[in-house]
Specification:
single chain; mainly beta; seven-stranded mixed beta sheet; four-stranded antiparallel beta sheet; 11 strands; 53% strand
């Protein structure tokens, strides 16, 4: 059974940091491109960061220099370190796996507010 389980969301003040983690199981993690997406209320889901099988990374312009995606192909996890958070980063963050099929996690809420 395929599972992507996100954790690490919560409430943080502007300028603060959070680290999201996604634990994967049920598929060959190392074969998959892993990504983080987010969806704010009333907006479409958008790509935040991508990491390939060989750990090449790409980021949305809005998070470049503030967010870092990483993966551990032994632990089958993908993390998103988020620094200098802004209110506009408030969203539900989703873990995504893509190769032969696409899998999604259930999402974790991130709220940036004073």
């Amino acid at each position: 059974q395929v599972q992507l389980v996100e954790s690490g969301g919560g409430l943080v003040q502007p300028g603060g940091s959070l680290r999201l983690s996604c634990a994967a199981s049920g598929f060959t993690f190392s074969n998959y491109v892993m990504s983080w997406y987010r969806q704010a209320p009333g907006k479409e889901r958008e790509l935040v960061a991508v990491i390939t099988r060989l750990s090449s990374t790409k980021y949305a312009d809005s998070v470049k220099g503030r967010f870092t995606i990483s993966r551990d192909n032994v632990k089958n996890t993908v993390d998103l370190q988020m620094n200098s958070l802004k209110p506009e980063d408030t969203a539900v963050y989703y873990c995504n796996a893509f190769f032969m099929q696409t899998y999604w996690g259930q999402g974790t809420q991130v709220t940036v507010s004073s």
